[in-house]
Design brief:
Layout: H1 8-17, H2 26-32, H3 49-60, H4 64-86, H5 88-101, H6 108-156, H7 159-164, H8 167-209, H9 211-258, H10 260-265, H11 269-321, H12 327-368, E1 380-386, E2 392-394, E3 404-409, E4 415-419, E5 424-431, E6 440-447, E7 452-457, H13 463-470, E8 478-483, E9 486-487, H14 493-498, E10 500-503, E11 512-513, H15 514-519, H16 527-536, H17 540-544, E12 553-554, H18 563-577, E13 581-585, H19 593-607, E14 611-615, E15 627-632, E16 635-640, H20 642-648, H21 651-656
Parallel strand pairs: 7-14, 7-15, 10-13, 13-14
Antiparallel strand pairs: 1-2, 1-3, 3-4, 5-6, 5-8, 8-9, 11-12, 15-16
Helix pairs in contact: 3-12, 4-6, 4-8, 5-12, 6-8, 6-12, 8-9, 8-12, 9-11, 9-12, 11-12, 16-18
């Protein structure tokens, strides 16, 4: 209750004071974090307002033709507006005032002048229309390019980046932040520049009319500028907080929607509502305070300018009566007092939008500028044909032979072609996600071509981490991993991953047909190859029973399919690629025992002649493996065949006989 009784200004001051806190301080950072759900906020000021604005303009600057038209019509609009205002002086002094004293009144000359004035206003309106139209086109064009760069940057970021940022937070870059940039380009920048031109022109004309009266106006404008500067200074801070809290709110919404079944299963609805309510209130409060300062500008400036208007009217009237000023000059000058606040209001209003756009753009550029995933590999993967003498020759692009080879560069500029065998060696590997908290300790594993290696152990033992290191999703701390005798650090990541097939526990299907999702494993695969892969995975039967068979549309990550069917499609997607090495991470975890038996023959065919790494909790599925590696707490505790490990009566024996659990 005490917090609610605080004045608005006290709360505003408290919120702005947070910005001075070093968010890198662990204790304070934890205090401003919100849990459960997405992590802490970044309340820092924009690091480089000028640089960010120039980058935004750089996107617009790619379409120079539109910019030329916008500038041209903006100048026409501003000049016509100024000319029309000043035209009132001769209209009053030379045409209206004389008519007052004339006995025989001739309105023809006045009518002609009014038509000229109307023409100037029409020209100004037309120029304003074309300026707005071209600005809208340019803003959409530039924002489209910005979103494209953002999406492209996301494809190149390492997995570690997505471990630290929620999907909702990243999505807010594409929606809210990009929309703010788009509105800034469509209205803010042009209106800001137009306001400057109009303001400068108005000041010049006011000086031309009366420098004495301008002194009063200048003092008023100075006060107005100080007000705008104060608002701008703190608006940047508050809008940064607003955008940050909105990203966190979006992340919470996505997290709760993705886990809605879990929420309901554990009766978490009330807690979820409370958590969302807190985040929603935080966003509301940040939005209120971010826009509160802007709402102060207009009534404050109106009050200041009304005082200026009253004082100028009194002094100007006295100057007119004493013959030092004309009626037309006084009328135009008083009109300029009203008009001089319009560009200030326009600039101040757009300044708020501009700061909001800069805050959003900085968040977007932070993603774009993030260090992309490191590669450093030079060895490629190509299809080859074998000559009569056993030599390998690279095929033409698009030609299929089913034979793959590593393309190793030599010092003399030529290449060595080494057939892909599928030999994998993990030698003395140490790895940690967080420094000084090792996950894997001195891991050494080897797989000869065509062997099946199974990893078993408790949850969190490090089984999946090993396969992630083979894929180079993460870089090892110490040791090395060899693929056909080549250090995987020397292999281009795209080539390495193209040689590895993965079937994960969590399936991801994409919007498109069933055929499209199978072909995702090999984009140039024919329909016949996709159907054959589906048969191998034993998915052909259920696919043919779908409403449109292989042309059935899949949406919402396969919500119209059962979990087992989705897993079968994921297996078929890997089967069509025919990778020399396969990684099956709980590949049959979502398939019932009956379906598992049905696809076992297909899986045997799929794995035939390939090196396979299997991660499984069902120990019955790995009995036929050439070697079973038991991992506990990041270390290998046992290795051998099923029979050998049972004979040892160690950890594997306890797991297999049920004396211990894979918890």
């Amino acid at each position: 209750m005490a917090e609610k009784r605080k004045s608005v200004f006290a709360q505003l001051k408290a919120r702005m004071a947070v910005d001075s806190v070093d968010v890198n301080d662990e204790k304070i950072y934890k205090n401003i974090q919100r849990g459960p759900g997405p992590g802490g906020r970044d309340f820092r000021k924009p690091k480089d307002t000028k640089g960010t604005l120039l980058r935004i303009l750089g996107y617009a600057g790619r379409n120079k033709k539109l910019i030329v038209f916008i500038v041209l019509f903006m100048l026409i609009s501003s000049v016509c507006s100024l000319v029309a205002s000043y035209y009132l002086k001769p209209l009053i002094d030379d045409y209206i005032v004389p008519l007052i004293t004339q006995e025989s009144k001739d309105y023809g000359a006045l009518a002609r002048q009014l038509l000229i004035l109307a023409g100037i206003y029409l020209a100004s309106a037309a120029a304003t229309y074309f300026t707005s139209r071209f600005c809208m086109t340019l803003s959409q064009w530039a924002t489209n390019a910005l979103r494209q760069d953002l999406f492209s940057a996301l494809q190149d970021l390492p997995i570690t980046y997505f471990d630290k940022h929620t999907h909702g937070e990243l999505m807010s870059r594409f929606s809210n932040d990009a929309d703010n940039v788009q509105m800034c380009l469509e209205q803010g920048i042009v209106q800001f520049l137009s306001g400057i031109i109009t303001f400068v022109g108005t000041i010049v004309l006011m000086l031309a009319l009366s420098w004495k009266l301008f002194i009063i106006t200048a003092l008023t404008v100075a006060v107005s500028f100080l007000l705008v500067r104060w608002v701008g200074r703190y608006s940047k801070i508050l809008f940064k907080k607003q955008q940050s809290s909105l990203g966190i709110l979006n992340g919470n919404i996505e997290e709760m929607l993705d886990g809605l079944k879990v929420v309901k299963a554990f009766s978490y609805e009330a807690r979820a509502k409370d958590s969302f309510g807190d985040l929603n209130d935080e966003y509301r409060e940040n939005s209120i305070f971010a826009n509160f300062l802007g709402s102060l500008i207009f009534p404050s400036m109106n009050a200041i300018m009304n005082i200026c208007y009253a004082v100028t009217a009194v002094l100007g009237g006295f100057m007119t009566v004493t013959g030092h000023f004309t009626i037309g000059s006084l009328g135009v000058y008083l009109n300029y007092i009203r008009q001089v606040t319009m560009p200030i209001n326009m600039m101040s209003n757009q300044a708020i939008n501009l700061f909001s756009a800069i805050a959003g753009a900085e968040r977007i550029f932070a993603v774009i500028d993030h260090k992309p995933e490191e590669d450093g590999g030079k060895v490629g993967l190509v299809t080859v044909r074998r000559g009569a003498d056993g030599s390998l020759t690279e095929t033409e692009k698009g030609e299929r032979t089913g034979l793959w080879a590593w393309k190793l560069p030599r010092e003399d500029g030529t290449f060595e072609y080494r057939e892909v065998q599928g030999s994998v060696r993990v030698e003395h590997v140490n790895f940690s996600y967080v420094p000084e908290k090792p996950i894997l300790k001195d891991i050494t594993v080897w797989a000869k071509p065509g062997q099946q290696i199974a990893f078993v152990g408790s949850t969190g033992a490090g089984k999946t981490t090993i396969t992630n290191l083979i894929n180079r999703f993460y870089e090892i701390d110490e040791g090395r991993i060899l693929f056909d005798g080549i250090d995987i650090k020397d292999i281009k990541k795209a080539a390495l991953r193209r040689s590895l097939g993965m079937v994960l526990q969590d399936t991801n299907l994409f919007t498109g047909t069933v055929m499209d999702n199978i072909r995702y494993g090999k984009l140039d695969a024919t329909d016949e190859e996709c159907i054959e892969a589906a048969k191998t995975a034993n998915a052909h039967g259920f696919i043919t029973r779908l409403p449109d068979g292989y042309n059935t549309m899949i949406t919402g990550n396969g919500q119209n399919l059962s979990q087992g069917q989705r897993q079968l499609l994921a297996i078929a997607r890997t089967a069509v690629a025919k990778h020399p090495v396969m990684i099956l991470d709980e590949a049959t975890s979502s398939i019932d025992t009956r379906t598992e038996k049905l696809i076992s023959r297909g899986m045997d065919t799929l794995m035939e002649g390939r090196t396979v790494f299997v991660i499984a909790h069902r120990l019955s599925t790995v009995r036929s493996a050439d070697a079973i590696v038991v991992i506990e707490h990041g270390e290998i505790v046992e290795r051998g065949s099923h029979e050998e490990l049972l004979a040892q009566r160690g950890r594997y024996y306890m797991l297999y006989t049920g004396q211990s659990e894979l918890d």
